[in-house]
User: What shape does this take?
Amino acid sequence: MSKTVADTAPFGALSPFFLIIKEGLDGLADGEDFFDLLADDVVFEFVISVPGYPRQVEGRRNIAELYGGYGDFMEVHSAGNLRVHRAAETSVVVLEYEVHGRSVQTGRPYDNRFVSVITVKDRKVAHWRDYLDPVAVFDAAGWPPGQA
Assistant: This one.
């Protein structure tokens, strides 16, 4: 098991988010946990995201660092509704999935949907384009202030 991010961390390598990704890539990418699935030089693009979040991150270690602090903001309790779309003639996989939890700072529920477009090369994730619902993040964070 990879210890890139401790499994005991609030958003460790065995969180529901990472486990659903591993399930979606089963048989396509090799690795014992989420971070093991990534190529050393993986590129992540966050196409639809929230203000202040990076638009692009390069390298497995930088991705682990980015996600390492996630547990300070959101607790993910479950992930589900996985849909996997694989193109037999290419190395691209599209994953649709949901995550559910709560904001650590506000206690409000967090329910988000994602679409991840993933390119696999040599049985490792080489490129990742991520799309999420930013309104779900805003709702969980209580933004704008004063919302019920």
Residues 74 and 132 are 15 Å apart (CA to CA). The two ends are 42 Å apart (CA to CA).
